[in-house]
Design brief:
92 residues; 5 helices
C-alpha cells in the first residue's frame, strides 16, 4: 500500500509543477480574492432575492463576461480534462 501512496504523492508533486496547474492555482487565488468579482456575486444574489429579474440578468451577464471569470473557468475546464485523462489512465 505504501508504494501506491508514494506514487500518488509523486504524481501530485509532478502535477503541482506543471505550468497549467501553476497558472490555475494563481488565477484561482486572484479570482477568489477579487473585490469586483465578490461584489458582483453579492449583487447577483441580492437581485435574485429581490426578484429584480432584469438586474439579475444584466449582472449575471456582466459576471459571465468578466475576463477574470472567463479565464478562471477556462483554466478550470483544462484542469478537469487533464485530471480526467489521468483518471482514465489509472483505471485502465
Amino acid at each position: 500500500m505504501s508504494k501506491i501512496i508514494d506514487d500518488a504523492k509523486a504524481l501530485k508533486k509532478e502535477l503541482d509543477n506543471t505550468p497549467l496547474i501553476q497558472e490555475y492555482m494563481q488565477i484561482r487565488d486572484i479570482f477568489h480574492k477579487n473585490e469586483e468579482i465578490l461584489q458582483l456575486k453579492k449583487e447577483i444574489v441580492r437581485a435574485k432575492n429581490e426578484n429584480r429579474i432584469e438586474d439579475h440578468k444584466r449582472l449575471k451577464k456582466e459576471y459571465d463576461n468578466h475576463p477574470l471569470v472567463m479565464n478562471y473557468l477556462s483554466l478550470q475546464e483544462e484542469v478537469r480534462a487533464l485530471l480526467k485523462q489521468i483518471c482514465d489512465i489509472i483505471n485502465i
